[in-house]
Amino acid sequence: MNKIERNTKETKITVELDIYPERSHVNNNTGLPFFDHMLDQLATHADWSLSIEVDGDLEVDDHHCIEDVAICLGQVFHKEWQRTPNKRYGQRMLPMDECLTLCAVDLCGRAHSVYNLQFSQPMLGGINTEMWEHFFYTFSINAEICLHITNQYFRNNHHLIESAFKALAYAFKEALEPKQNITSTKGVL
Fold first, then answer.
1. pLDDT by residue (tens digit) across 159-182?
2. Sign (positive/negative) of CA torsion 15, 125, 23, 90?
3. Taking the CB of residue 58, how many other CB atoms lie within 10 A of it?
4. Domain-located, residue 144
5. In this structure, are residues 69 and 35 in contact, taking their beta carbons and an 8 Å threshold?
6. For residue 106, what are the β-bridge partners?
7. Label partner for 73 (CA 20 to 30 A): which of 21, 110, 124, 168?
8. The whole model's pTM is what?
9. 182 vs 77, 83, 93, 108, CA distance in Å?
């Protein structure tokens, strides 16, 4: 288990993460219930133990909270995925009712993010939909991973973002499978 704290004038955040728990435990309290729901989906479907506590300036808007959680979660995930040699690559095509979303990850130490989720409304669950791209980008940069998320089609915006978090969870499950040695012709990542 790894823990990180971040205290700024805008947010106070504590994140605890264990990607190989004996028993998973999920407890997220960001002050944004829909964001908590998405983080719960990620941790539950990836079989992680995840606890996030946030005291943020939500009276301003959702930006600082979501961005700073992405920074912290990315940094703590970076520590976690480097603990044990793993398969490195993971992917998932995930259906959710009328929605189909693809996710691929490379735990490589080189940060990159490609994102294509075209929401049909500007707000969802009290959160600006533009923040989801920012979350995934900021998370991938701080986790030092390559992350691709794209949607093929959808009608329901809730299904769109939830399918992205679930696809990410299952891509991580595959990539994080332990392996005896590092998957790289260089011998290091």
1. 999 999 999 999 999 999 998 876
2. negative
3. 16
4. yes
5. yes
6. 89, 146
7. 124
8. 0.94
9. 18, 12, 25, 10
CA-to-CA dists, residue 167 to 13, 20, 36, 43, 171, angstroms: 25, 19, 17, 12, 6
Residues 6+ positions from 155 with CB-CB distance below 8 Å: 98, 99
Domain count within the chain: 1
Range of the domain at 139: 2-175
Chain segment 68-124, per-residue pLDDT in tens = 999 999 999 999 999 989 999 999 999 999 999 999 999 999 999 999 999 999 999
* Residue 186 included in any domain: no
Q: Binning pLDDT at 50, 70 and 90, where does residue 134 land?
A: very high
**Is residue 68, in this structure, part of any structural domain at all?**
yes
Give me the residues paired with residue 123 across strands.
Answer: 128
Q: Nearest CA to 121 among 64, 70, 151, 160?
A: 160
186 vs 76, which has greater pLDDT?
76
141: domain CATH number is: 3.30.230.40
